[in-house]
Amino acid sequence: MFYLLYSYFASGDHGGMPHYVPFLNLVRYLTFRTGMALVTAQIVIGLMGSRFIDWMRARQGRGQPIRKEGIERHVIEKAGTPTMGGFMILAGLLVGTLLWADLQNIYVWVVMLVTLGYGVLGFLDDYAKVTKQTTAGVSSRAKLIIQFIIAGAATVVLIRFGAHPPGEPPVLSTSVAFPVFKNLLVNLGWFYVAFGAVTIAGFSNAVNLTDGLDGLAIVPVMIAAAAFGVIAYVVGNFVFAQYLQVHFVTGVGELAPFCGAMIGAGLGFLWYNAPPAKIFMGDTGSLALGGALGTMAVAAKHEIVLGIIGGLFVAEALSVMIQVGYFKATGGKRIFLMAPIHHHFEKLGWKESTVVVRFWIIAFVLALVGLATLKLR
User: What pTM, to 2 d.p., does this model score?
Assistant: First the structure.
């Protein structure tokens, strides 16, 4: 909104230029708007805070159901904790983005709508679990179908209406770019729609599977958002893109304020989600945040790098796939003591806080590796 005000006055037809208003002059800087989006999102969640949690606790009764076949102490320690904390995250994220991003930018709207769509799907799942007091909400098949429809539609829009930068190959919008190899592009044509949908929906579910311990998912999400904020800024800046020899994508830099808002929302939520958690983000938050990261990777043409930066989420999802596949193939045998893999380490005797902090460290290191690919060409 503030950027639209700057653009309005900058047109010169409305009684003056924005440099007469110092605040509006600052708004033209992407870094300033990114920082303000972070602060705004954090303030929004701070204002919601305990009142929202108390309100959710009063309406959810026994809170989020806990898997009885899971970690024994979780049934006791986490029972009665309300869920749907993703509402807080989405509120801060959307307000921060709407106030500080360029609302004429197609990438901003695509990422926001995917985030909102996945958030609504997550809410329906959380609502079914709470009202029925079961860990089974919306059927997995129905969720996947809806996720792929949303992700596929978003990918089509990015291909059709995304900016085609001058000097870049016209097939960039339907191609997969590989890190390290500066000129390697694999054009998938319209098969890229399926690739983009798998990237978005797959990463959404990966974040959802990681959200099993207090604070475990939200910090790696913030780390990934920070990394993609840098990537969006670099890829959307012609000078930096040329210097680092990455593919320039016009307008994608406007996703930096969205990333800032995601970090701010995550920090605000972590205040209440830190062990012992007063509220869980639920599928309302995890599906939305994962979908947002996947969509940003598709928009910035860094889908492969997402697998590096979000390697922790990928490992969590793979652990479930391997466990289920091996269980079915061997007639009941298991590779891990329990999946997702964070529960495996709990079964080995690691304290919850130990698992969480060590996984944070892994997420941070992987983000640095992913960012290093910007320079390694």
Answer: 0.91
